[in-house]
Fold Zinc-type alcohol dehydrogenase-like protein.
Amino acid sequence: MKAIGFNTPLPINNVNSLLEIELPIPEIGEYDILVKIQAVSVNPADVKIRASHQPQAGNYRVLGYDAAGIVTQLGSKVSQFAIGDKVYYAGAINRMGSNAEYQAVDSRIAAKMPSNLSFAEAAALPLTMLTAWETLFDRLNINKDTAQTLLLIGGAGGVGSATIQLAKALTDLTIIATASRPESVDWCRKLGADYVINHHQLTQQFAEYKLPAPEFVFSTNHTDSYLPQIANLIAPQGKLALIDDPTVFDINPLKGKSVSVHWEFMFTRSLYSTTDMQKQGEILTNVSKLIEQKRLVTTLTHTLYGLNADNLKQAHTLVEQGNMVGKVVLAL
């Protein structure tokens, strides 16, 4: 089968940064499904790994952590899917990715895609929806009766876009999202943010708009640079969640308010085969229902047609720039 991989970390503008290669169709395990890929999305995780990971000599790493496609083969212990089902999922970081014609994925972390979405629209969702859902409901432990305030740093990106929607659909939170450009401000408001403020002026704008101290803060990027303002703004006994990778992260300023810190890594369940691994499939099933009820929408904003090296390089470039609104997808 055709696939796109890399064998050495290179800048994305290097002709060899991503290469079209031939690989055997993956063999499946007892819990796996084999999926014929129809669309994939590119996330910051793809960019980070491509730029820093060195595959073993002579081997290629195939990336891709979002996909939508058609089930073509079932493992012996798979009962929730049938051949021909349309599915979507975020995959696992320790297995071959979705930038290929076929992918083997554990059925417990996949779900039937929303019936009212195209493959491209569905492929934009899994990783970011899982990250947002796990952050809100597993890490921060927010529930429907929580009539409090969430400060979301980075509201217009993929995870931010999913977080605004889930918080609006499933909680009574007041959502304060951050964005700095007119198009990203409009995007956050369109998705349901109650307030949109500039992340370069957090403290000033909280005072200007007389916003309440947030009980919950979710930082999606540059958390180390925002930490002094977060420590100043967050409510006593508040909760901070983050998903990025600060080089240095000194949480001592949070001690005086007894703030708890929660790190979210969407791949933890699949990486360690946790006993609740199937919860990711359940989350995506719930997301499908919410989309079919038109309570959530896809965050797809850029579509490139053709799963090839040139298009994948273009998608990586868009993500690397760090100012994209929504998600970019490659579709057949």
About this structure: The mean pLDDT is 96. The chain has two domains: 2-126+276-331, 128-266.
